[in-house]
Amino acid sequence: MKTLELGKTGTQVSALCFGAMRCGTLQNEQESFAILDQYFEAGGRFIDTANNYSFWYEGGKGGESETVLGKWMKARGNRDQLFIATKVGFNTPDLGHSLSRKTILQEFEGSLKRLQTDYVDLYYAHKDHREDALEETLGTFNQLCEEAKVKYLGTSNMRAWRIAEASHICQKNGWSEYVCVQQRHTYLRPRPGASFFPQLAANDDLLDYCQEHSEVSLLSYSPLLGGAYTRTDRPIPKQYQGPDSEDRLGALKEVAEDLKASLNQVVLAWMLQGSPTVLPVISATTSAQLEDNLGALALNLSAEHLEKLSTAGNPKA
Questions:
Q1: Domains of the chain: residue spans and CATH
Q2: Is the pLDDT of residue 95 over 90?
Q3: Contacts of 256 (CB under 8 A, 6+ apart)
């Protein structure tokens, strides 16, 4: 598995992060173990979960993903070989959206218990909850880092200017800073005015910020739009049906045909090889889906491919 540095931490992480959101709900324990084993056997070590995954699926209450992941790590004895990320902020309906000190400390201990570990490699603020003071949130996160319970901090669903503000607060206080941001992002661009509330999609400001601030890595969630690029039963979401979508889909298909690759593989390769570099958070419910995603690592996009993909749909000069 190819690795990339997370921010400027000096720590290498798997270029394709596995999103374990469906584990324990849409995928039972046996199915979850099988897909996690496949990812691990392919060299994958970077796994992403959250304290609220996945209360919105039938039978879910939140915490199922962390619980299954904890059981898998214990059964395989591989915790020290993994880079585990989890989150706080969106939380479960009974707790509500919060990044207060009390909520963070309470939810973090719950995550440790479910994961059957005594530390987390990467801890995210799952959203930018502005009702809670940023100083309180960042100070609490820093405490967890000082106690060696968390190695690195990340944020998600946050505007670039708020990340800059958080960086300023941390530098002023000598606190641990966010080393990455995880945002909704894919090859197709959202149409003007599209909303993903309460999620945020990466916009030009965030992409530019991460290009200029290499100490903050960009990770993409929902990079493959739940299969919409390749499945006829899954239409492209309306938010991505914009004035340039046909041009970009056309470019994507041309490059895929040229490389004899799947559309999904080209999307992932474009993220990894584009500018700024984007680390995709992938998911899969079948072995074949995961195998296809992993195949993106073997693709080498030429300068012409990258130019075609990145400029498709741009206004003509």
A1: 3-235+268-299 (3.20.20.100)
A2: no
A3: 262, 263, 265, 266
